[in-house]
Amino acid sequence: MPSIFSRIVAGELPAYKVAEDADHLAFLDITPLVEGHTLVIPKKEVDYIFDLPADELAALHQFAQRVAKGVKAAVDCRRIGVAVIGLEVPHAHIHLIPMNKVADMNFANPKIKVPEERMQELAADIAAKVEGGSGLESDKKAEAAKAQSAGKPAADATLQQLQELTKGLFFVSESEAPLEAVSYEVPSGELTDAVLHKVLVEPVSAKIEKLELAQFLRNHTADDGVLGDVDLANRYKALQMFMKQELSDTRVYRVGSGPQLYAYALGHSAEGKLTGFKTMLTET
Known about the structure:
Blueprint: H1 4-9, E1 17-20, E2 24-28, E3 38-42, H2 54-74, E4 79-83, E5 94-99, H3 116-129, H4 137-149, H5 157-166, E6 170-172, E7 176-178, E8 180-185, H6 193-199, E9 208-211, H7 213-221, H8 230-246, E10 248-255, E11 260-268, E12 273-282
Antiparallel strand pairs: 1-2, 2-3, 3-5, 4-5, 6-7, 8-12, 9-10, 10-11, 11-12
Helix pairs in contact: 2-3, 5-8, 7-8
């Protein structure tokens, strides 16, 4: 069964996120010792931190260093204490704890209750001060809006996130095909088959079949499904959750007929584009 942290990574559970990259995530502890108590995890579920390969352990600590500097800048404290306990959740994690005295690091101390509004404020303050940027989707959208307001071309933040989410993923039909993040400019108005043929540069004679995203990915998001790999299933769950939350009117369009055809999982992004991923299906 996936750990509670893996479920946060997959988007199944909420968290007060403060920083993220392709392999790591940092978020506020909801039962903190002090305000600003932050957890840093690898997205890959590994129970014991010292079972991580040396390069991955080093990368985790380098990410934690960036986050710790953000916590120190956002929270009034003398130092950021570091602790690895490893017994309470079977998923490697590092505690970053703002401290003014050694006793602040005592895990026998009673946990404090921080109101939701304050947790949101802390998360935003820390994210804003993470060296090199937090990497969070909300910050990418804010940067895009700022660039647009300044009259500069903005990067497609949604496409960039999808590129990270689909990296290394393959759709399994009768063969394997990689998932490719895509984004298309679309005219206003109804998204008819004729419009899709033009946007996707597909023959006008190609048949288009529409499916729900959850139905299309059902074998890949099931822990005991076609992949037989919980970590991969969680990556597909995260991809599905992202597309449901960040895109509107998301659909899968199967274009053409066997033995090989393209499938496009697309929805309307905040940038006003038709964005998602495409892959090849093999059906004989």
